[in-house]
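From the shared-data thread, chain only:
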Amino acid sequence: MLVVAAGTLLLSSERAVAIDVGRLLATYTKYRGDNPQPFRDWQLLIRDGQAMAVGDKLRRVNEFFNRRIQFGDDQQIWGQSDYWATPMETLSKGAGDCEDFSIAKYFSLLALGVPVEQLRLIYVKARIGGPSSAIQQAHMVLAFYASPDAEPLVLDNLVTEIRPASRRTDLQPVFSFNSQGIFAGVAGNAEAGPGGVGRLSRWQDLLQRAHNEGFD
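Structure, as tokens:
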């Protein structure tokens, strides 16, 4: 059930997630007041996705951002060498780098009722061009764990098809994190390390800005 009241979407799931539409729209409009359509389309994605099976939620969110957001450099988009954009910032700009793709998908899936325990952002070393490529660069993807001991599924802006981690031999995991903490590896049953999200200052800052944006 999707209840709209006083500018807030209350999404029913195992863990209710509140989204303040007014604040989200204000952030979006700050950057892109001339074109509200991308925001409306994102609202429809969240509304229509509530009744979907989890696999369909993953696919729809992954395709939504991969098709609508153009890859861009932070310096060109934000005038900074390394900026982690909130979902509404990315949607309004229509551009972002790998962190921005992953962050937007993460918060959208939380809004669709996917438990935070099943989602991790993963820093990887990616071989551009395939597993045999000698070109390697830092990259970020989003992973979904059906259960703590399950093989994760990888949502990526480089490869739109959602694949199990064993089929992404071009990616070498470094560490993972979510709103609950930072993890030394990528195992779904791993415990978060000490220090909480504060160990990754950019992520801690991003979480606060996303909260201010309307992701409560």
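Confidence is low (pLDDT under 50) at residues 1-16.
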